[in-house]
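User: My collaborator and I are trying to settle a disagreement about how two of our proteins should look. Neither of us wants to argue from intuition anymore, so we agreed to look at predicted structures for both before our next call. Could you fold the first one, then the second, and keep them clearly separated?

Assistant: That sounds like a sensible way to settle it. I'll keep them separate. The first protein:
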Amino acid sequence: MGADIDPFDLSAAYLRRAQGDLQAFMEGLAARLEPALPDAVAVTRKRKGLFSSEMRTTAIAVTTSVGLLTLSIDGGRLAATRTSVVRGVAIGSKAMTVPDWLDELSRSIGTTGLATEEARASLYAFLVS
């Protein structure tokens, strides 16, 4: 899978994958990204309820060479942002569409080298399954 993933295909795959249950989409994406990029991915989980032992993924943050890509879920809606970071300081944040976020994530993983080919393959397999 050396070639870039076509952004249209990625958007279509996202729409098919997330169509049913956004929470399940977040859980699945976190489960794929955490082991593939352990040093670059931070997953935030919160309890489902006050006395519940069940945890839910509420945000996925991926550190890239140009900043921080964050995908979060709140009130049944996904929010995607890109934060520019210079020397550890956030200097700006921009909201994006989820397909654009996934495309940027895929490109960012692709530019880090062969060590993350497994991460790109994992992301692609998750979206098209």
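The second protein, kept apart from the first:
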Amino acid sequence: MVFEQAVQTMLEIGIYSYVLPFFISLAFIYALIRKAKVFESPLVSATVSLAIALLIFAFPVLVGVSLAKPFSAFFTQLTIVMILIGMVLLVAALFIPNVAEMIAGKARNAVFAIAIFSIIIVFFTSGLMSAFTTQPAMPVNLQALYFIIALIVMASLIILAARVAS
């Protein structure tokens, strides 16, 4: 009962709709930018990641759709799929010697294809597709949006200039 109240309170104050999607997108985008080596400076990578995450943070308000249920369903279903795959690998290890070497060698492409296929299936069954198919519920004030984007770009340039100067 206490746990249910805690989850309900976090839902009411927007932890699941705003804060968690913000942090997940921030971490994911930062990791992608760093891995792809788009920018040399970690500070620039962090600034760009923050700007993109803030735009994602505004998405539920601008479009009028909540990402809490689809994200929760997506990560729960993905966790279940990973547990099932782990169980299959454990059972396979009982009957197939060196199953880890087999997966790393011959079956590597098959495992990759199964993982991608599983993620796509979970993406559609979790309801995350609604984020792409939902039209804005209210008209978006483009001047305000352009102003916010300009502020983010200016702040990024100021931070970059200060970093280069030092």
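Some points you might bring to the call about the second protein. The mean pLDDT is 79. The CA atoms of residues 31 and 49 lie 9 Å apart.
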